[in-house]
Amino acid sequence: MGRKFFVGGNWKCNGTGEEVKKIVTTLNEAEVPSEDVVEVVVSPPFVFLPLVKSLLRSDFHVAAQNCWVRKGGAFTGEISAEMLVNLSIPWVIHGHSERRALLSESSEFVGDKVAYALSQGIKVIACVGETLEQRESGSTVAVVAAQTKAIADKVSNWDNIVLAYEPVWAIGTGKVASPAQAQEVHCELRKWLHKNAGAEVAASTRIIYGGSVNGANCKELAAQPDVDGFLVGGASLKPEFIDIIKSATVKKND
Ligand SMILES: O=C(CO)COP(=O)(O)O
Known about the structure:
Largest sheet: 8 strands, parallel, barrel
Number of domains: 1
Subunit structure: Homodimer.
Mean pLDDT: 97
Low-confidence stretches: none
CATH topology: TIM Barrel
Protein name: Triosephosphate isomerase
Keywords: Isomerase
Structural class: alpha/beta
Number of helices: 12
GO molecular function, one term: triose-phosphate isomerase activity
Helix content: 40-55%
CATH class: Alpha Beta
Shape: globular
Distance between the termini: 15 Å
Number of strands: 8
Bound molecules: 1,3-dihydroxyacetonephosphate
Strand order of the largest sheet: 1-2-3-4-5-6-7-8
InterPro entries: Aldolase_TIM (IPR013785), TIM_sf (IPR035990), TrioseP_Isoase_bac/euk (IPR022896), Triosephosphate_isomerase (IPR000652), Triosephosphate_isomerase_AS (IPR020861)
CATH superfamily: Aldolase class I
């Protein structure tokens, strides 16, 4: 089965060239578990992708934060999957709640984007997650299942997808999901995959958690059986990202 621990750093719309170089230097100098134990992927803004790719240690990888839903062309302001391939960018993030909420990306659109990126050979970190209102009304599982279904409807092979559970109320708020809350939703997502995509997909797909993960709370979250890693926002810009990468060893020891 072997779900390798996955730690993604989503830098969002942050950083100057100088700041980016500083973060990369910190990452390059860090002593972390080997690539056999943890897969590390950082996602700078588009304009810094070539710079980060050229400077970053070879055991860490880069992701774009978005790409266009179909082949490139007359789509002002967009970046195509073909361009990412051209730059040898192996990963892309799709379905982030900030894009769903602020740019009105529907679940169907996200499904199409995931499918197109995969068709071009790009691996996808696909995000799902409920709002506070949805959680309080008891519809968390229904919401994340519907978002996952919109992806599953367009995709038959899950080998190159990492599913990120990111409750909207935990993103950038400092309000982290408790380990039990994260485990519960991850377990439900795995059950959903089992029922709808098969036992093998459920057993092998990594389901990572995102939302106010930091150096202090990562170990307890990582210890949950269905938490296969993290997608980190704010803390991925700071040296504590190294501690989060190291939390992969929690899995190694059990
Ligand atoms: O949105 C996130 C990662 O994609 C999480 O952001 P924070 O870690 O800043 O809460």
